[in-house]
Every structure is written in structure tokens, then in C-alpha cells.
């Protein structure tokens, strides 16, 4: 099946000479959640803006649902819902009025049943008659999503969807996004919350300095680049590592009570068995041990650092 979004050789250089995107190639599959990660100024918002027809590319092509974004602007834009990073809403309008108006902007006839369905799915139904200015930041964010869904798009862009939203509301929003994906909507999100991408995404792209440096299935990425740490909780405080253990990637914590061994989970041998044997020979005993695996945040930081 053809990808719902196809981006080939996409670049953007502004009049000032700043290059925001450099030859980006990307395919987004139907019905997936794709997370685009990158530091501030990496090119995330520029990429979204081009696909949504807000910014013109310098070079390259973008197809959405088989339509080229410049030749078939109306067709492509009707397929896309955009939730911007900024909370831009009609403060004095009611929730119902502003969401209904957004549908009309796409030339669609009124559909109260659809608007009701969207508002209920986003837990906004009891706020339908409230003025937007009276809503909390989290509720305003939900209104933006409702507006983006008012014309029944096939693709939804979420630019920092939970910025400024507290932890409990953030998790509610994650559930909303999953339900949208389950209903057949393709989701592309940018986020600074690494746990958000780790929790929700099917695939992850990392962009920095305008270049897409990695695209990978989340599980494969974690497996490929993740490292594990074995933490040994010692019986007695250790002042320094003995010379016999210098060959290992060991770190002694500041109070001398824990030894930390970092190893590659893809390696043929982890070296743990030999380490435990050498520890015993060195007279170092431990009372407990546990392992932890690199988080997506660790992987992201390492990837970006390598490109600097």
C-alpha cells in the first residue's frame, strides 16, 4: 500500500540564507503514530509547515494521499488536520461555535453529529457552551485538536501537543491520540517529552540541524542503540576500583556503595559472568543487583551529541 505521506529531497532555505531543512526523505505509513524528535531549531515545525501548505519548500516534493501539495493544494489540505504549538483560539467564542466554524472553512456542510462525537471523545462535551477564554490550558489544547478533527482528516499533525499540560492531562491526551490512531487517523507528532514518544510512537525520526539523521521502529531503535547497566549494591564501601577490574566499563558511585557496569545488549557476550568471577577473586561482595536499560531520552541525547 502506498504511504499516506511521501517526502522526497525536501529542503528549505529562507531569504536570510538560513537552511532549515536539508534534503529530507521520509515516508509515513497509513494508520501509524510517527514521532519526530529534535532539539529547538532542528527543523521540526518547518517540516510540518511545508507538508501542511503553510511554508513553501525550496526544493523537493511532498505527496499526501497521492496528491502533490502544491499542484493539488485543496485536496491535500482537506486530508490534513493541524494542531499548532501555540494556543491560538477565538477567546470569546463557545467551544461548539469555534469547532463548527473550523469545519465550514473546508467547505463542508454542517454535521452536528460529527462535532458532538469529536467533543465527546475529547471530554469537551460538558464544555460545549463555554467560552474558550474560560477554559484551562489543557482544555484549550483539546479544543485545538477538536478544531483539527472537525473536517474529518486522514492525517493529524500534533506540534508539541502536551506543552504546558500537567502530567495527568498529558496521559489523558495520550489515550485520545491512541483512540484516533485506532479509528484510522495517521498521527505525526513532535514532542520535547521523550517519554511521550516512547509511550506512543510506532516509529521515531530524529532531526537535527535540518537533517533527518535516523528513522527507525521504536522497538528496533531501543534494541539497536540501547545499553544496559548492571548495578551492584556492595556489602562494604569501596574507596577505589582495584587494578584487576580496570578492563571493565565500571563506575563507582560517589559514596562507594554501588558499582555500575555498562554493557551492550547486542554484543555476543555481555561479560557479566566473568565480571562476577573477577569481583569474587578481588574479595568484593555484593548484597543485591539490578539491571536497567537505556531510555529513549538517553538514546536521543547520544544521537544528537554525535552530530555536533
Q: In what order do the strands lie side by side in the largest sheet?
A: 6-7-8-3-9-10
* Architecture per CATH nomenclature, i.e. the level-2 architecture of the largest domain: 3-Layer(aba) Sandwich
CATH topology of the largest domain: Rossmann fold
Biggest pleated-sheet summary: 6 strands, mixed
Q: Count up the domains.
A: 2
Properties at a glance:
308 residues; alpha/beta; Rossmann fold; Alpha-Beta Plaits; 10 helices; 14 strands; elongated
Task: Describe the structure in your own words.
With about 300 residues, the protein is of the alpha/beta class. It folds into two domains: about 5-220, Rossmann fold, CATH 3.40.50; about 225-305, Alpha-Beta Plaits. Helix content is about 35%, strand content about 30%. It is built from ten helices and 14 strands. The chain has helices at about 45-50, 75-80, 95-105, 110-120, 135-150, 165-180, 195-200, 220-225, 270-280, 295-305, and strands at about 5-15, 20-30, 35, 60-65, 65-70, 80-85, 155-160, 185-190, 205-210, 210-215, 225-235, 250, 260-265, 285-295. The protein has a six-stranded mixed β-sheet, with helices on both faces. A four-stranded antiparallel β-sheet has the order 2-1-4-5, covered by helices on one side. A four-stranded antiparallel β-sheet has the order 12-13-11-14, with no helix packed on it. A hairpin with a 2-residue loop joins strand 4 (about 60-65) and strand 5. Helix 3 (about 95-105) packs parallel to helix 5. The longest helix has 16 residues, at about 165-180. The protein is elongated, with a radius of gyration of 24 Å.
Amino acid at each position: 500500500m502506498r504511504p499516506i505521506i511521501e517526502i522526497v529531497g525536501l529542503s528549505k532555505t529562507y531569504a536570510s540564507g538560513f537552511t532549515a531543512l536539508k534534503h529530507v526523505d521520509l515516508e509515513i505509513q497509513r494508520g501509524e503514530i510517527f514521532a519526530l524528535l529534535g532539539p529547538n531549531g532542528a527543523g521540526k515545525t518547518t517540516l510540518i509547515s511545508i507538508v501542511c501548505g503553510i511554508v513553501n519548500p525550496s526544493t523537493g516534493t511532498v505527496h499526501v494521499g497521492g496528491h502533490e501539495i502544491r499542484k493539488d493544494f485543496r485536496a491535500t489540505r482537506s486530508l490534513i488536520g493541524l494542531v499548532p504549538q501555540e494556543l491560538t483560539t477565538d477567546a470569546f467564542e463557545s467551544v461548539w461555535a469555534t469547532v463548527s466554524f473550523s469545519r465550514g472553512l473546508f467547505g463542508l456542510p454542517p454535521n452536528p453529529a460529527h462535532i458532538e462525537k469529536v467533543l465527546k471523545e475529547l471530554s469537551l462535551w460538558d464544555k460545549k457552551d463555554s467560552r474558550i477564554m474560560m477554559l484551562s490550558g489543557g482544555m484549550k489544547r483539546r479544543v485545538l485538536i477538536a478544531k483539527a478533527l472537525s473536517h474529518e482528516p486522514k492525517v493529524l499533525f500534533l506540534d508539541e501537543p502536551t506543552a504546558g499540560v500537567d502530567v495527568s492531562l498529558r496521559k489523558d491526551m495520550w489515550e485520545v491520540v491512541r483512540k484516533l490512531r485506532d479509528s484510522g487517523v495517521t498521527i505525526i507528532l513532535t514532542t520535547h517529552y521523550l517519554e511521550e514518544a516512547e509511550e506512543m510512537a510506532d516509529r521515531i525520526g530524529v532531526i537535527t540541524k535540518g537533517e533527518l539523521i535516523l528513522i527507525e521502529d521504536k522497538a528496533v531503535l531501543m534494541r539497536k542503540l540501547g545499553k544496559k547497566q548492571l548495578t551492584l549494591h556492595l556489602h562494604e564501601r569501596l574507596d577505589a576500583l582495584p587494578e584487576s577490574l580496570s578492563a571493565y566499563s565500571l563506575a563507582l558511585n560517589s559514596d562507594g556503595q554501588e558499582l555500575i557496569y555498562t554493557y551492550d545488549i547486542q554484543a555476543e557476550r555481555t561479560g557479566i559472568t566473568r565480571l562476577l568471577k573477577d569481583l569474587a577473586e578481588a574479595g568484593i561482595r555484593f548484597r543485591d543487583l539490578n539491571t536497567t536499560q537505556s531510555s529513549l531520552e538517553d538514546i536521543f541525547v547520544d544521537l544528537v551529541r554525535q552530530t555536533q
